[in-house]
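Sanity check

After download, print the first record. It should look like this:
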Amino acid sequence: MSLDQFEGGEGAGSQAGHPMVIDAVEGDVPAATIAPAPLGHRLRRAGPAVLAFVLVIAAWEGLTRAFRVETFILPRPSLIIERFLATSDVIWSAGLNTFIEAAVGLVAGTTLGVIVAFATVRWVPVREGLMPFAVAANSVPIIAMAPIANGMFSLTSPVPKMVVAAVVVFFPVMINTARGLLEVDPDELELMRSYAASQREIMRRVRIPHSLPYFFSAMKVVAVLSIIAAIVAEYFGGSQDVLGQYILTKASLFVYADAWAGILVASLMGVALYGLVLVTERLVMPWHVSFRSAEAS
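Expected structure tokens:
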């Protein structure tokens, strides 16, 4: 029996409404078995995190007021919010420029990482030669790359910041995606080969679905790292209308409430990127067991 015949659904399993074996290999389950969790259930699951956040902010505000902590040591949250609102035009303009640098670096690093990961699966010499180098290069700190990247391009150009963000994103995405593509159950591969599946079919139906959890695990990390990398690279010079220079300038002038307001903007951008990854993950792989178990709990 060929793979096309197997997919045709002529057998008793298809008539009974059960998922095909190939679909089970991919991780798919019948749509009827996946029901979205009620809104109340989702809110209850988010409750502990919201409560912990509120308690931390309340403790921060209360302790800084009770002990009269000077603002140059640690400004209280109410003052940070006040400065955040007062400087919103300037701070969001700088934040937008930083966000663009981080987003371009995130997209570029992710694209290159996925391409190289597929190359490591296709060609064994590439995998054996590149993986040790990737692991070693991934340990290089951001602060060491930023001045080098600035020296390679114009100091006022945003390109060095994008390059630093892309490099920081590239290695985790490449390593995790390659791991997901390679660490496939041999029984699944044997099943596909028994139905004369081509390497392309095996890649599409087995390796890629298996790699998606690894890929999105990396994306959850690098989405925030791209913001951090762009801001650190900005510390070493460039345009003044960026978040890194804004925070650095305010801190050097001892206006720490404004500096913390800049950090707040960076945090919000990181949360936004992280949330975008979570939404994309849910749309791309709703069949994954982590979602089904979370909804059942």
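If your output differs, re-run the checksum step. Summary of this record's structure: The chain has 14 helices and no strands.
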